[in-house]
Amino acid sequence: MPRTDAGEDRLSCSRREYYRAEMTSPTTAARPATDPSTLAERLTLADPVAAADRRAIRVVRAPGRVNLIGEHTDYNEGFVLPIAIDRAISIALVPTTDRRVTLTLAEDGDHAEFDLDAIGPRRGAWIDYVAGTAWAMQAEGLPVRGFRGLLASDLPREAGLSSSAALELASALALSPAEEPPVDRMALARLAQRAENDHVGVQCGLMDQFASSHGVEGAALLLDCRSLAFRAVPVRLDAVALVVSHSGSSRSLDGSAYNERRAQCEAAVTRIARSHPAVRSLRDVPPALLDQVAGDLDPVLA
Predict the structure, then answer these.
(1) CA-to-CA distance for 39 and 59, rounded, in angstroms?
(2) More confident residue, 104 or 16
């Protein structure tokens, strides 16, 4: 993967011929695949409903992330330091009143849809992240509405850049009748995490959804995954660059041992807490304590 700028930031809105909501930096130009005007025009060419009412078209966007510190520490209630990047998922859409979500991938024309009142179980496909977000929003009592949309991405899938979290956050924006769901950003991130945990079936922590929903231009974000306190950590992008190198090996959480790793961490905590009740997560286990209890743990857990 080529060098990439980083530090993309927030949900913001602007009005042109269509409504645009995004989690992005106002200083970074969109790439052709996700350029809002181009994507909106492609939707009008592909969908007669959009063509009939161009002013109703919205374009929403959510970025991926690079994690600087904190692999597998989020669900262990530790600290993480992600940074949102300039690669993102965008959806051009026209709202509908029929309670159906119809979405097409701009890249290859793959098409999927579902009924908001009968979402059903996961299908094992990319649409699960959209349907799961709709399910989680409704479970929280948040309003949703149907839409017909075209999804474009310059965020590589299965590259470890959190395309799934970006899709969940973009979906939340697309599904909301308002500019964005009527909850704060942390609640929005946790809602997207619930979609991935309970509908898609990946027991991820909060880091990816947090990074996509909270990114700050020119900064990484230090998050305490226990208290959920966070602060921006400036990154001198005028002096340094973040370089992401793709090994060529696909990475997909739902097809990996990710859930197994989380279960192993939780099993270790359960064992340790029998003799040390104050331990709630591996965050509470300093190296000296781990050495002390290692003999009581399965070798994989120690």
Answers:
(1) 8
(2) 104
